Amino acid sequence: MRRPSNARAALLLPAATWTALFFLLPLTLLVVFAFGQINIITFDVSWGWTLENFTRIADGLYLQPIARSLFLSTVSTVFCLLLGFPVALWISRLSGWRQTAALLAVMIPFWSSFVVRTYALVNMLGDGGPLANVLSTIGLTSNAPGILYSPQAIVIGILYTYLPLMVLPLYVALERIDPRVLEAATDLGATRWRTFRRVILPLAAPGIIAGCILVGIPATGEYVIPAILGGGKTLMVGNVIADEFLKVGYYPFGSALATSLMVVLTVVLLLARSRLRRYEEIVS
Q1: CA-to-CA distance for 67 and 51, rounded, in angstroms?
Q2: 19, 22, 153, 227 - which has most CB atoms within 10 Å?
Q3: Residues 83-112: what's their mean pLDDT?
Q4: Is the pLDDT of residue 259 over 70?
Q5: Residue 234 carries which DSSP code?
C-alpha cells in the first residue's frame, strides 16, 4: 500500500525541489529584503525591521510610474482584446488544415527571440520608418517623424508581443461553442449583432478573462519593452525596480516595490480567477 504513495512522492520530488530553490527561496528573500534597512555608507543590508520602504512608495515620484504601468497595461490589454477577438472568432470558424495553418501563423512569432522582435520594432517606429512614411503619405504628418521612445511605442510593443496570448484562449472558448446554439438563436429571430451580444460574448467570457490575465499581468511589470521602445524616457514600474537593484543599489526599497506589485497583481489574479470559475460553471 505504501509503494504508490512513495512512487508519487519520488515523481514530485524534482519539481518540488526546483520550485523551492528557484521560486520559493528567491520570493522569501525578496520579502525579507523588503522589510530590511541599508547602510548608505557601506551599502550593507541590516535587519532592523521597518515599514519605511513601503511608505516611500506613496511618494509621487514612484506613484507616477506605477500609475503609468497600470494605464499602459490596461490600454494594451483592451487593444489586444479588440484585435484578438475577431481573429480568434475567424479561426474558430475554419476547419481542417486551414485552421491548423491559422493557429500556426499565430504561434510563429514565439519561435523567434523576444528581444530580437522588440528591437525589430525600433526600425518600424523610428523617424523615417515605415509607420512614419505611412503617416506622412496619408497627410497626418509632413516630415515623417516616428513615435519611437513614447508611450504609444510601448503600447504597440506590448500589443505585438502579447497578442497571441489573447488569441489562443479566445480561440479555445469560441471553438467550444456548439454551432447548433447559434442556429437556434437565428431560428428564434435574433439578428447577428444580438446573437453576438447575447450568445457568443457570454459563452466566450472564460476566454476573455483568461486572455486578459495572460496579457495584463505580465504587461504591468514589463521591463524589456519600455527599456527598448521607451528609451528610458517612459519608465514603467519594472524599470524603476530594476534601477533600484542595479543602479541605485537600494535592495530593500526595490524589494518593497516588487513585493507591492506582486501583492496587487495576485489580488487581481484571484479576483479574475473567481470570476472565471463562475463563467465556467455557467457554461458547463
Answers
A1: 22
A2: 153
A3: 90
A4: yes
A5: S
